Amino acid sequence: MTQSVVVQVGQCGNQVGCRFWDLALREHAAVNKKGIYDEALSSFFRNVDTRSGDNGPDIYKGKICSLKARALLIDMEEGVVNEILQGPLRDVFDSKQLITDVSGSGNNWAVGHKIYGCQYRENIVEKLRKTAEHCDCLQCFFIIHSMGGGTGSGLGTFVLNLLEEEFPEVYRFVTSVYPSGEDDVVTSPYNSVLAMKELNEHADCVLPIENESLFEIVNKIHQMINSGKLGSTVKQNSLVTSSAGSAKTLEKPFDAMNNIVANLLLNLTSSARFEGSLNMDLNEISMNLVPFPRLHYLVSSLTPLYTLADVNVPSRRLDQMFSDAFSRDHQLIQADPKHSLYLACALLVRGNVQVSDLRRNIERLKPSLHFVSWNQEGWKTGLCSVPPVGHSHSLLALANNTCVKPTFIELKDRFMKLYKKKAHLHHYLQIDGMEQSCFSEAISSLSDLIEEYNELDATKGGPRIDPSRLKIAV
Questions:
Q1: For 308, how many CA atoms within 13 A lie in the half-sphere containing its CB?
Q2: 18-43: per-residue pLDDT in tens?
Q3: Do you find a cis peptide bond into 179, omega within 30 degrees of 0?
Q4: What is the pLDDT of residues 202-223, one digit of tens each?
Q5: What's the rounded mean pLDDT across residues 436-451?
Q6: Residue 416 CA to chain centroid, in angstroms?
Q7: Which of 314, 294, 298 is nearest to 306 (CA)?
Q8: How far is it, in rounded angstroms, from Cα 369 to Cα 325?
């Protein structure tokens, strides 16, 4: 069994990470009734003998003693991490695996990357090595961060570079939350584009997620609850309701939004944690879905959307679930993959689903999807027998699709609006090691990426040429 380590950076990264660990524990508790430390748990948790203090040895078999998350928590403001340490998950995190400061990065990529990166480099490397030493077979690092702030974008991408230097053989999956156009951080376009250059160069796979899409999904659930369409009892004290059981007003429904991202990660890692008739290794995702090194942005969609485990919803019909995964409403970025070009697609199914169900649905959907001519059979499938808590089955679709391009074009436009006026630039240029060339290189990197997607899009709709078959002389 392989192990993975989660590195959560900045306010957003730590809040999403907190939801992930909470839901992961619930999921394992639903399956592991006897409280035995098994291989499934070992993929993301250590079992530590804490009877002689926090530094006790790891226990590899037998009863669960004290579970510790394979995680590193980093934030340059201590508020969110302190909140986690005072909350119900406080015992899940090893106190030695936290790195915090007090002043924050002031929404400035350069402060996070150049100042805090240099200041905390040795500390971060030491803690990463410590975490890695507790793993028998470390397969993957998951970084969770946002693109708009200073710590998430700046220090988050600094950590990504460190991982490539220190652990070049270990896969680097990055979950990046992109700001919306109405973001309240004025400098978020600068931070996002500077971070994008690092993601282009150092990540194996990036799962871009847009705040706007998350908000719309949560809004949709909220409307369905209020209209009574769900059938539908809403669970008490859930993330989409108040303790009184009435639906919350959705001014800033961050808990529910973070929950969706946490569920994406739960489904992504389910094959690594549980058994299934067609298990998909994490390294297979990168191997099968990324044909060109820079085009490693995977558009994700979840179905059912109510994986929030908040709403008692009748299960979607299986075939409907597959159709939903390709509809615009279920994407975690503002995109419509059906009308764009697929390089490859992965379907990770959980629950009581047969391989024949998978094949039938792929054949049914295939005619309506545009795949590149050289990869018409570019499907990767995984079946995990353990469904999410409260559901009979679920589906995560990961698409390497040119529909991600408009997100990048919009980001570039927002960057250029500021950059043309040189607005706020002095805040960055006063940081040691930060020059104007950093900005021109970053926007050039993003423009090149957009151009690569343009070239692929230009091939869409052309005649499909089947490769000639190898002729065998008899």
A1: 27
A2: 999 999 999 999 999 999 999 999 99
A3: no
A4: 999 999 999 999 999 888 887 7
A5: 97
A6: 27
A7: 314
A8: 12
Closest CA to 298 of 380, 377, 216: 380
In angstroms, the first-to-last Cα distance of the chain is 46
- For residue 307, is pLDDT > 60? no
> 107 and 149 in contact (C-beta within 8 Å)?
yes
| Cα–Cα separations (whole angstroms), residue 102 to 76, 106, 169, 196 | 6, 11, 34, 26
DSSP symbol at 36: B
Q: Is 439 exposed, middle or buried (0-12, 13-18, 19+ CB in 10 A)?
A: buried
For 371-408, what is each residue's pLDDT tens digit? 999 999 999 999 999 998 888 889 999 999 999 999 99
Diameter of the chain by CA atoms? 77
Answer whether residue 474 shows pLDDT above 60: no
Measured distance CA(255)–CA(13) in Å, rounded: 13
Cα(106)–Cα(427) distance, integer angstroms: 10
Q: Using the predicted structure, report yes or no on whether residue 314 has a pLDDT greater than 60.
A: no
Residues in the chain: 474
- Predicted model pTM: 0.91
- Per-residue pLDDT of 344-366, as tens digits, reads 999 999 998 999 999 999 999 99
Residue type, 62: G
Distance CA 98, CA 78 (A): 10
What is the phi/psi pair of residue 36, to 5°? -95, 140
SS3 (DSSP) at 297: strand
Tell me the chain's radius of gyration from C-alpha atoms. Answer: 22
Rounded-to-integer distance, Cα 350 and Cα 259, Å: 18
d(CA 175, CA 267): 13
Can you give the pLDDT at residue 227? 72
Q: Please state, rounded to an integer, the average pLDDT across all residues of the chain.
A: 88
User: Are 411 and 199 spatial neighbours (Cβ–Cβ below 8 Å)?
Assistant: no
Amino acid at position 296, single letter = H
Query: Above pLDDT 90, what percent of the chain?
Result: 72
Question: For residues 315 and 205, what is the distance between their CA atoms, to the nearest angstrom?
Answer: 31
Q: How many CB atoms lie within 10 A of CB 58?
A: 13
Our separate counts of H helices and E strands in the chain read: 15, 15
Q: Which of 54, 31, 50, 28 is nearest to 41 (CA)?
A: 28
Write the CA distances from 426 to 114, 187, 412, 434, integer angstroms. Answer: 15, 12, 20, 10
Distance of CA 207 to the CA centre of its chain: 5
Q: How does strand 71-75 pair with strand 98-100?
A: parallel
Q: Helix, strand or coil for residue 426?
A: helix
